[in-house]
Fold this protein.
Amino acid sequence: MNEADGTISTLMQDRNIGDRFWPHLSTTPDLQRFVFTSSDRHPPEVWLGELTHEGGTLTNSNRKRLTELNPILKDTLELAHTERIRYESADSWQIDALFTQPLKHKGDTLPPLIVNVHGGPSSAWSDDWDNYRFPGYSQRGRLPGWTGHGGW
């Protein structure tokens, strides 16, 4: 956020900086570089980000991974893609959710759908590394669908 005029700039559309409880983010004093430990495709690693400005306006944010704590993971674990979706509920509310397609679905029938409704109100599912259930469900041909309160 620009303190002078109150404008807000999104650093990254495709990345949640932090986890379910607090952000894991540190910045340089001039706020031009930052490090964080979150990714939806890897267990926590250290990433470096750098902001690009033109004429006082944020134009880009680049990032690169600095650590690789488990190099075997990328060769042994196949992860399904998760995307953010929005749908209308029975009472016409717009529901934000995370949707993960199964990896190896075959045939013309739809795979089973798993919907995990978060009960809230003080936490939420987020689009980050999930080493708990959903990647495994997806690998086995299931269709996990997240909904949450105050998040995705």
Summary: The chain has two domains: 1-73, 78-147. The chain has two helices and eight strands. Helices lie at 73-76, 134-139. Residues 148-152 have pLDDT under 50 and may be disordered.
